[in-house]
Amino acid sequence: MPSTTVIILDEYPPPTPELLDALRLMDAELVPRTLGELLRGPLEVLPVADVLLAPAEADGESIRSAVRRLRRWAGAPIVVVWTVTEFAALQHHVRLGHDYLVPPFLPALVGARLHSCSERAGLGRTLREADARAELMGYEKELEIGREIQAGFLPESLPVPTGWEIDVRFRPARQVAGDFYDVFEMSRGRRLAVVVADVCDKGVGAALFMALIRSLLRHTAENSGLQHLMAAGRTGGSRRTPVVGATPLLNAVTATNGYLTRNHLRQGYFATLFFGVLDPLTGSLVYINGGHNPPLLLSGSGDVPVPLDVTGPAVGVLPDCVYTLGYAQLNPGDTLFVFTDGVPEARCSDGTFLGDERMLELLGGPPASGKDVVDRIDLAVREHTGSAEQHDDVTMLALHRPRAARGPHADRMAAA
Amino acid sequence: MPLSVTLSIEGDTTVIELEGELDAKTAPDFHQTIEKAAGHGTSTVEIRMAGVGYMASAGLRSLVFAQQKVADHVTIKVVGAIEPVSRTIRTAGLDRSIQLSDD
Question: If you average pLDDT over every residue of chain A, what do you get?
Answer without folding.
Answer: 88
